[in-house]
Amino acid sequence: MARRRTKGAGPIKKWWRSKHEYHFQAYTSMAILFLGITVFSFIQLFFRDYAQEASQNMVTLAWLGLLGGAIALFFVGPEFFYFYGKKQILSDILRLDSRAEVMRLRKEAESAADLLGKGFQIRLKELYERLGINIPKKYSSLKETPRDDSKDDSEEE
């Protein structure tokens, strides 16, 4: 029986997949940028007398910003919320003090940490060390970076 031959991933797709540590930051930045463009264009068109004061080229540019930003948000938004949900799950697990609960949620925590990158993997490894849980081989080679504990963790939440 003949099998259908699948086309291999292109160079851009290979490069993007190799940079999985930066996907959450990239989707966050893109979501903020496109939301800003969409809101700015919406305000320019509908809440100011922009359409009457500006030239036709500027009105066209505002419409392009509104539609382009909305379309881009349609594609970027779900990916952003997927990564954000994984980050929230991992943050909730990292706050736990119960060894049994962490062991129960271990697979979910490790998949989220792998998805979000090295910084989150290090934090999960620190939790495992603190609670006396066996550290997986893939995390044993991670080097801990010195963190300033005087900073508030609100920037990561």
Describe the structure.
This protein is an all-alpha fold and 157 residues long. Helices cover 70% and strands 0% of the residues. The longest helix is centred in the middle third of the chain and has 39 residues, at 56-94. It is elongated and about 65 Å long. The N and C termini lie far apart (53 Å).
Number of strands: 0
What would you call the shape? elongated
Number of domains: 1
Spell out the helices and strands N to C.
HHHHHHHH
Count, helices: 8
Q: Helix amount, in percent?
A: over 70%
- Characterize the main sheet: none
Q: Please, what is the average pLDDT?
A: 84
Distance between the termini: 53 Å
Q: Which structural class best describes the helix and strand composition?
A: mainly alpha
The poorly predicted ranges are none
CA radius of gyration is: 22 Å
Into which percentage range does the β-strand content fall?
under 5%
Topology, pairings included?
Elements: H1 11-18, H2 23-46, H3 50-53, H4 56-94, H5 99-104, H6 106-116, H7 118-131, H8 137-140
Helix pairs in contact: 2-4, 4-6, 6-7
Labels describing this entry:
8 helices, single chain, elongated, mainly alpha, 157 residues
